[in-house]
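Lay summary. Proteins are chains of building blocks that fold into shapes, and those shapes determine what they do. In this project we predict the shape from the chain. Here is one chain we studied, written as its sequence of building blocks.
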Amino acid sequence: MKYRIVALVVASSVALSIGLATLSIVCIAAVLILSESPPSPLFKPSKQSLVGEYRLPTQSVEYFKAEGYDILPHSLVLRGDGTFEMIDVPFLWGPLNRSDPPMTANGTWTIDKDFTSRWSVLLSFDSTGPGSDQGVWSILYIRGFLPPYSVYVWKQEFVLFEFVK
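And here is the predicted shape, written in a compact code that computers can read:
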């Protein structure tokens, strides 16, 4: 009986030690993930969680206007059938240039990880206006640990333009 109690105490101590070590690892991982800026989903988002109409928020529109850009009413629509449409979205996929016209385009979208392992919306353009090439693609990063998500484009380190529903 005495050995059974000792064995039970030893087993409980080992289990508690393993549990505390696991909890420590989970806490450290959570701190690293939570300190990431901007936050990225922990798991692959569902297509339905991203479907909707997005626009640049007021602070982004004000930034563009302060920089001398004309910002038209615009939208980015991600549809449930895997297609998208952009209407008069400022051109954000390259150096900012006041002479670049706003982008009107359509194509298809999917959810996948990019080269940095961040969940992203991959846009494959069918058209981006007269004289443009088909098959061009771009990335919108997904922001948020859980829905509702927003999507954004990095312009340079610590500068991003977010689209919100």
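What the prediction tells us: Residues 73 and 88 are 7 Å apart (CA to CA).
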